[in-house]
Predict the structure.
Amino acid sequence: MYQRILSNFAMHVHLTVAEAEYVTARLQKKQVKKGEVLLNAGEICRNIYFIDSGCLRMYYTDTDAEDHNILFCPENWWSVDIASFSGQRPAFYNISALEDTSVFYLSFATLEQLYVDVPKMERFFRILTQNGFNLYQQRITSNLSQSAEERYELFQKQYPKLEQRIAQKQIASYLGITPVFLSMIRGRNG
C-alpha cells in the first residue's frame, strides 16, 4: 500500500523501519474523482498531496475565467500550493484531478510535527521544495525563451506517456497555446 511513497522518500532520505512506520501511520489517503477540486484559489492549502495513482493539475484561473495549467502531477509527484501551505494563507492556485486519482496527504500540522519527530522528513521536504523551485525556474525560462515546438518537446520529456492520458486542451493550456496550434505541431512532428 505504501510502496510508491516510501520509494519516493528513499530518493532523498533513508528511513529506518521504525521511522517509516511512524510516518506511514500519519498519512491519510483519499480517492479523488476526475474533475474533483482539492483546492480552490482563495482557500488555505491545508494539505500536501502525494499522487499514488492518477493525475492532478495545478492551475490559475484568470479574470476571463480561463484556466492556465501550471503543473501536472502524475504518479510519484507531489502537489501543493507551497506559498499557501507554508504560510497558511489563501491560495493563488487551484488543484483538481484530471483523472480518477488516489493520493496520500499530510496536513500542515502533521508535517510540522513530523519535522520534529523524524528530522529526516524535514530534509526530504527541503530537497523536494528545492527541486520544485528549480522546476519552476526552468519552466519560466522555457516559456520566455523557447518556441511552442520546443516547449512541447520538453513537455514530452518531462511527462512521458501523459499526453495519451489527458485531454489535448489541458496540454495546450500548459504550453500556452491553442489546441488547434498544438494539433498543427503534432502533425508536423508526427
